[in-house]
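Narrative progress, year one. The postdoctoral researcher (J.K.) led the effort to move from monomer predictions toward full complexes, under supervision of the PI. The following entry was the first complex the group processed end to end, covering 540 residues in total.
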Amino acid sequence: MKSLPSAQPGAETVFARRFATQLSLTPDELPIIRDICASSRPVRRRQDIVIEGKRNRNIFFVLEGIFVRYRIMRDGQRQIVSILLPGDMAGARSCFFETALYSIRSLTNGLVATLPLDGLFGLLDRQPQLAGKIFCAFVHDAAICAEHVVVVGRRSARERIAHFLLELLTRLRAIGLADDHSYRIPFSQDIICDALGLSLAYVNRELRRLTQDGLLEISDHKVVIKDIEALSELADFERRYLQPMPLGEVMAPSFLRRPAPGQGEVAFIR
Amino acid sequence: MKSLPSAQPGAETVFARRFATQLSLTPDELPIIRDICASSRPVRRRQDIVIEGKRNRNIFFVLEGIFVRYRIMRDGQRQIVSILLPGDMAGARSCFFETALYSIRSLTNGLVATLPLDGLFGLLDRQPQLAGKIFCAFVHDAAICAEHVVVVGRRSARERIAHFLLELLTRLRAIGLADDHSYRIPFSQDIICDALGLSLAYVNRELRRLTQDGLLEISDHKVVIKDIEALSELADFERRYLQPMPLGEVMAPSFLRRPAPGQGEVAFIR
DNA sequence: CGTCGCTTTGATCATGATCAAGGGATGTGG
DNA sequence: CCACATCCCTTGATCATGATCAAAGCGACG
């Protein structure tokens, strides 16, 4: 299997800039994030950076590599709660509990920067708006998680798989790691089945059917979505949950914002 | 059906105090929250306070009543993403998207206070620690959501139902709305089935089996958990995800905290 | 050359969906 | 006060989605 290339020099600033865009950083906030990213650490493939049941007080910025947040059940089954891509943050949730509720593991070699929780609360006093932006990133993460509930709760296996592949396409494209219709997934089908709560054999069969129907092509870990329209229709995929407002716009005081065209505020009561 | 009693005078301060505890508010922060709660509004049963696809820029503090966050699918099926109880916050996520991703609806008469998003960002400058605490509450909400993924993804119908009822017991007890083994659920089985991604008929059957096995009793919307131990074992219910650290402790600088007994930091790399 | 990790496929089983019908409650209007 | 409707619970019969079990193929790699 080809994994992502290992840490290259300069990756820190590439992703510091990417964070900058996602979080709408101002010129004085940017160097702070760049500082955090500068002291990054490599993570080898299949390594846990957070372990369920152990204490964690660090927030990790994923600069490179793909990670999963997961739980191992009593019977040995695994449920993957989220897929974490470069530009995402990890480990924040466990900071607010005695010990971590999930483990977080790399699927590939990767690179992460560390912000201790204390550092975040420190920022809260010195750079409150920046700290707020980081907290907002947690909210975006939660939105993906909520959507995952809907995928797993109310969709058929075929729909789940289609949705999963489309979500990955959209997220990878947003960070420049996919082209218009295709991307490399450096992981195997068991990730898909554990993310979607399905059995391996069945995921395989349904993937096969999707390719036979001409919607996909998968070969050697490269996924080509041949008909995005049809697949989106099949999966009932709405990308809105992957597109939060630009933070600069959300955080500006409301008198600076024009209301969205044609959409007033919701009438509240009565 | 008996719904919760309507807004009583004084409910604002009762729950302002409850928030105070949950968020470890300091004496100067408390009046701010109390102010927000003072201007609360009643919500009638079965009313949407956030509507999917509509713009929302308000954070709602649930002072009274039970709410659900849900999505209606193409085929008319509903997936409930979260149950919101007094003391929870609602609508924050939709503030960060052009329009709401989910609707939020009351199951009972209720009472909510409103904090405009601008107000939260205003707090960020004037009372950064308080704003941080509110953001932390979003993280707790996300933890429940993540657990929901695991429930729906990898548990049998019987286990899901058991888990759901235990989660409710635990959360209601935490806010004083349940006694040791029982509580009233002012809603019907279709809420359970839409929360867990099951069919109504099957939920009914499995509920029946659980009562026949002597684990539960349900009559007229009152749930009595007769054997918490056995039910927890059956559901693989771990309440940890409902017990975040007291924020006062999390937010204190680390040199004030003693490490958790017997649990060092996680060894990071290698 | 043998092993390991991953994919593929077949056969069978069962969990849970769907369809259908009936049975209290409670409420409402005539 | 009764007729009727509505909401929710209950139960049976049947169906199908997806799990489980089993086995084989196939690179890659040591």
